[in-house]
Design a protein that fits this description.
about 110 residues; mainly beta
Length: about 110
């Protein structure tokens, strides 16, 4: 169900409200979108209360930049971020693993 509400389109991130069915732009991708090499923002997880969204971002504005870094840096990977939808606060999420939401009152628990 969350995959239907938290989604990517053309590199941008969107969240559709479950009650009002209104769509909110979470992140706008500025760059040359390419689904394989420069996908923009990629949705990863949505908290049960829809307060936190987790997404990945390659930090490359063109497919060429992503391809070049992938060839030159074998440890290259997309960085993952967590964003509070209500406040707009965002931070790098270190050691992204599987995210498990325990209940509506708990925020999140991550493990590898």
């Amino acid at each position: 169900m969350a995959e239907d509400r938290f989604y990517e389109e053309g590199g941008d991130l969107y969240l559709k409200d479950a009650v009002t069915d209104e769509t909110m732009l979470i992140k706008n991708f500025y760059g040359a979108y390419d689904a394989k090499f420069s996908p923009g923002y990629v949705p990863r997880a949505l908290s049960q209360d829809e307060t936190f969204v987790f997404f990945s971002y390659s930090k490359h504005l063109t497919p060429f930049g992503a391809l070049l870094e992938g060839l030159l840096n074998s440890d290259y990977h997309f960085q993952t971020y967590v964003r509070n939808v209500k406040t707009g606060e965002e931070s790098l999420y270190v050691d992204f693993g599987e995210i498990i939401f325990l209940s509506e009152t708990d925020n999140f628990l991550a493990h590898n």
